[in-house]
């Protein structure tokens, strides 16, 4: 008998970045003993425990341990059980919840007086750039898992900076 299960339907990525068991694969009551392997692109480690049953069979339990993160969300994890010459596979897709991702775009370090059309996904400045727009802008994004912050210091110059010199060979 083979079965695979997620530790929880939803896995939460925490700021502490601690490894945790995300899935378990069990091959029960095998004689001879089954072999469990994991196929995945995820960077994790399987652990394995073997129990010898009173009737001479063996039960193998393998846990897949990793540090949940936004990169592990929607990744596939496949358990491959080999029993004699037969291979049984079962797969799950991880559902990982994580803190929001904060990205501040639009400030290219070259805001000058009277520049037009300065915008990004959150803030839109109508009209030309003025010295009043200089300052520190902070974006806080919060969800049920946590809060992340993005910060950008905006400096306004009197005129357009020339592009960096390039050397031709």
Automatic annotation (TrEMBL):
It is a single-pass type I membrane protein. Pfam families: C2-set_2. Residues 46-157 form the Ig-like domain. It comes from the Eukaryota. It is found in: Cell junction, Adherens junction; Cell membrane. GO terms for cellular component: adherens junction; plasma membrane. SUPFAM superfamilies: Immunoglobulin. Belongs to the nectin family. PANTHER family: NECTIN-1, NECTIN-RELATED. This is (Atlantic silverside) hypothetical protein.
């Amino acid at each position: 008998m083979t079965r695979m299960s997620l530790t929880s339907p939803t896995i939460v990525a925490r700021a502490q970045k601690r490894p945790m068991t995300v899935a378990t694969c069990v091959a029960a009551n095998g004689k001879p003993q089954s072999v469990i392997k994991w196929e995945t692109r995820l960077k994790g480690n399987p652990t394995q425990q073997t129990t010898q049953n009173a009737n001479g069979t063996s039960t193998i339990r393998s846990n897949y341990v990793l540090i949940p993160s936004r990169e592990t969300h929607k990744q596939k994890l496949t358990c491959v059980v080999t029993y004699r010459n037969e291979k049984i596979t079962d797969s799950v897709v991880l559902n990982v919840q994580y803190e929001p991702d904060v990205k501040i775009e639009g400030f290219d370090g070259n805001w000058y007086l009277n520049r037009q059309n300065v915008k990004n996904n959150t803030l839109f400045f109508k009209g030309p750039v003025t010295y009043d727009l200089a300052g520190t802008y902070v974006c806080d994004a919060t969800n049920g898992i946590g809060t992340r912050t993005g910060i950008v210091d905006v400096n306004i110059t009197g005129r357009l900076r020339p592009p960096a010199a390039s050397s031709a060979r």
